[in-house]
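hi! just following up on the protien thing from before. the input was this:
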Amino acid sequence: MTPKIARFLAENDLATPCLVLDVDRVEQNYRRLKRALPLARIYYAVKANPARPILERLVGLGSCFDAASFEEVSAVLDAGAAPDAVSYGNTVKKERAIKAAFERGVRMFAFDSEEELDKLARSAPGAKVYCRILVGNDGAEWPLSRKFGCEPEMARDLMIRAAGLGLDPFGLSFHVGSQQTDTGAYAAAIAKVGMLFTDLKDAGVNVRMVNLGGGYPVRYRAEVPEIEAFADAIMGAMVEHFGNAIPDMVVEPGRFIAGDAGVVQSEVVLVSRKATDDPVRWVYLDVGRFGGLAETEGEAIKYAFRTPHDGGAEGPVTIAGPTCDSTDTLYEKANYRLPTALRAGDKVEILATGAYVTTYASQGFNGFAPLAEHYV
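and the predicted 3d structure came back as:
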């Protein structure tokens, strides 16, 4: 929690649940990543948190943007970004959305299939396109499965076909999974891209860009490698596989930029036990999986909590949200312990919740209002 957030919480009696986000921390994180990877262009992953104050601050810093929908394209353009600073990075797009983005000046699009390539050729003629390939997600706390990307052999054929369709086969991309804790994951993916680059060059394709995706982690309960360690691994692998002919580099951070800039303040609704002699207390908060904490699915992302009773006696707890849905249980197996003095009405802060929280919040499940937002 930044001092600015702590001061704002102390000075304001906020209705909960709510997010408080320090936009200055967003800037600090952006600048730190820029220092660590000076050769890479930063395309902020808008889906992490598309709030206007964040977008405007990043526009002012010269950031580019990775958009997942036409609505996100519009949001960043309306916040002042230039069209050539926007990449439409979702490989699954309605053709009318492609056309609308192209009409607003966007010229860089992702794809991973033949049909998507055909849509781009029809509705974004001459655009720069990049093919996403499948890579391993080992080490990621929020893996991305096989929903996006294709095998390198298919990517090679698609990139050759892109040129024949009048598109510019600009580059290749990958994503090693969100909250990636293993720096070696990037090195392994870059090795795969390097081989494909060589094959494409030999086939006469003018491929010029590597998009290294996102995945750069923030600290929740456990320590993670610093961004500088990831930068060292990335640049070491780029030099190993590309030598002095390093292509354009793109990174798409979301969590790293916004994650530790925000704190969710919640209220304890109930503390109970399932049996008189049960050592495990159930702590019900007024925010849960449907209120924005969707990444607790499978207890994958393990947020840290701060309470008014920290430092006192603690005991094991199961932490759950407020809704009448049994899946709205956040942590049951992850060995959370909270103060035994915790009671209904206590305020609890959930740390590093600036990314992938507000945009996951439901629009009224069980009648609960979406998470309130405060940007300071």
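The chain has a mean pLDDT of 96.
The first strand starts at residue 18 and ends at 21.
cheers
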